[in-house]
Design a protein that fits this description.
Helix content: over 70%
Bound molecules: protoporphyrin IX containing FE
Largest sheet: none
Oligomer: single chain
Strand content: under 5%
Shape: elongated
């Protein structure tokens, strides 16, 4: 259990911490100090690197989460409320991430390749909004996961 919870915690910290840094630190600073073309090109590089690692974090979260469920916690029938809520929120977060990746992220890159900065900015605003939602969901999910064993039934 210790190994899997370690993997799980690191993956959650990476994904949620990365969203916090991007949304609450990098975005406001870039908006203040960079002109739109530079800012958008910066985001293309940041998102390419971050998203490739989010895939790994999602795989690690799912594998470690369901290993704990089936090997140590006795399967779906025996789960505490906090793990069920965590699964529901986790799948919602994954759905929103897929929506970003296969939705606005593609036209964002295409518009930048065409040097259509206005259109790229519109797509980036959509990505920002969904990442903001996923950040809140991620923080709630981490709280549930880490505190649930003390209150869940
Ligand atoms: C989607 C499927 C998921 C499953 C099946 C799952 C399963 C689990 C299980 C079984 C535990 C141990 C609970 C306990 O011992 O009381 C756990 C803990 C935890 N989970 Fe998840 N989880 C999932 C998604 C997520 C997501 C998306 C996040 C955050 C982004 C997350 C964050 C955490 C955290 C922070 C802990 C506590 C780790 C610790 O105690 O140090 N989980 N999870």
């Amino acid at each position: 259990m210790g190994l899997w919870i370690g993997v799980h915690l690191l993956a959650a910290a990476f994904w949620v911490g990365g969203m916090y840094f991007a949304h609450r630190c990098l975005r406001p600073a870039a908006e203040l100090h960079l002109t739109p073309p530079l800012r958008l090109v910066l985001w293309r590089g940041v998102l390419r690197r971050f998203f490739s690692r989010v895939w790994m974090a999602i795989a690690a979260l799912l594998i470690s989460g369901y290993m704990m469920v089936f090997i140590y916690l006795g399967g779906f029938a025996n789960l505490g409320l906090h793990v069920n809520l965590m699964q529901a929120l986790g799948w919602l977060m994954i759905g929103l991430y897929l929506h970003i990746y296969f939705g606005p992220y593609r036209p964002f890159k295409a518009a930048l390749n065409e040097k259509d900065f206005a259109a790229a900015g519109v797509q980036l605003a959509k990505i920002r909004k969904i990442v903001g939602i996923n950040l809140v969901l991620g923080l709630v999910t981490m709280l549930l996961g880490a505190t649930g064993r003390y209150w869940a039934f």
